[in-house]
Amino acid sequence: MFYTSTRDKSVKVTAAEAIAKGISSDGGLFVPVEIPQISLEFIEKLIPVSYIERAKNVLSLYLTDFSEEEISMCVEGAYKKGKFSSDKVAPLHKLSDTADVLELWRGPTCAFKDMALQLLPYLLTVSAGKTLKDTQIVILVATSGDTGKAALEGFKDVPNTKILVFYPVDGVSPMQKLQMTTQEGSNVSVCAIEGNFDDAQSGVKKIFTDREIEKRFKENGLAFSSANSINWGRLVPQIVYYVSAYCDMVESGELKLGEPMNVVVPTGNFGNILAAYYAKRMGVPVKTLVCASNANNVLTDFLTTGTYNKNRNFYCTTSPSMDILISSNLERLLFHLYGDNDAEIRELMKNLAEDGKYAVSGEVENKIKALFAAGCCDDDATRETIGKVFSEEKYLIDTHTAVAVKVYEEYKKSTGDSTPTVIASTANPYKFSASVLAAIESEIKADNEFDMVEELYEKSGEPVPAQLADLKGKEPRFKGVCRKEDMKQVVFDMLGL
Ligand SMILES: *Cc1c(COP(=O)(O)O)cnc(C)c1O
Asked: What is the pTM of this model?
């Protein structure tokens, strides 16, 4: 099994090379040359086994240059008992007649990013052992809030790695910020940038492909990699939970083996929903992929019209991890839908870089419409949805999950589609206490983050994750803020170059 670049089809690398590099040097993203196929018998065998066993089976189809022992070591380390607050790792919660919520936030940092970022350090260490001898890996991360903490937690004190996270100074929730700035570990660093997530992400991508930096790194025995979802090692673990969710839907009797499910995903960088697309392409019976956006609805417009246009207002919403106008992983989808035509992708990405927009061909637009539905939900509707789900279902959801629930309700109303549906739930509600509390309580007494956590607990009875409660009173270690032009210098300073 080999991987190629979305911008240069002559590239041919192993999974280990793709994961160790993170991004192709032509600026393209690594994609599997062929998507492995699974049968219903394969799925049936996974129904009675644990998440760890499901993960080993799915990952071994993609990581064909890893030995069975290597895959076992990685997966068992990532998902071992006690790391996630559910023995099922990613359990389903029944929400309504037709919908189940897939709780992807039961890991150490309380967001779905843990599903991949608990595993990535293992995958990267094994990959580097195969491809980069005597090299220290420098992980650069741009985060809209949750990736940063999950990556720091995954990589802290991992030998032969250093990690540096950039987050938008005004673009994350107070809890997200505190989680990152108090991070422990001897190989970690965190810096805020004056700008939004898109600025952070393009800054990081620029550093990755800068020839001068690459040269300086080589001389010093260093190499970059990425913990963002541009790295294949971030995406492949996410495919597992869609296979696992299907198994659980069959096990609970909500589906008969072979019957289709819909999947609804609150989307920002298009990584999570792309994993669901790969699961469908592999043979998991998935009918429609429903892409849910907040007020930053560039994807809703793209998936319904075929034109991507990032030239629009950027909104800071109550679901900050989805405040994104340039969704990197769309590039991978386009590559597959264009029949692996790298020239087309180069052209589209050039248009995006130069004009901030592009339009896909009519044929690709039709393919997109056959696969995806899309909708968006503003902050008012997000708040109403949290309140409604709490009062009617006695279930507390965070702002991102609420966007997905609302878009699903509208989808179901407008299409009449009653196919059993899995809604991805991407964060624990306590990561966004102020917004969640405001949705279920009209007169808030608390005036600081931890009093809000307490008040939300009193009101909802939902247990507070210890790893969030423990941040109270903790002194930040990382207070730096830089301009986006200075990101390169921050990298050099951290490494003492
Ligand atoms: C990252 C994130 C998202 C968006 O996921 P993508 O893979 O970037 O589309 C949604 N919700 C939460 C809570 C997140 O942390």
From this structure: 0.96
- Tell me the CA–centroid distance for residue 89 and ligand 1, in Å: 18
428 close to 111: Cβ distance less than 8 angstroms: yes
For residue 267, give the ligand 1 atom closest to its CA.
Answer: 9
* pLDDT tens digit sequence for 387-415: 999 999 999 999 999 999 999 999 999 99
The C-alpha R_g of the chain, in whole angstroms, comes to: 21
**134 pLDDT above the threshold of 90:** no
Cα 263 to ligand 1 centre (Å): 15
Ligand 1 centre and the CA of 429: distance in Å? 14
The domain 92-112+234-431 is placed in CATH, from the list 3.30.430.20, 3.40.50.1100, 2.70.150.10, 3.30.720.10, at 3.40.50.1100
Residue 203 has pLDDT above 90, yes or no: yes
**How many residues are present in the chain?**
497
Residue nearest to atom 14 of ligand 1 (CA): 321
SS3 347: helix
The crossing angle, in degrees rounded to 10, of helices 51-62 and 232-251 is 130
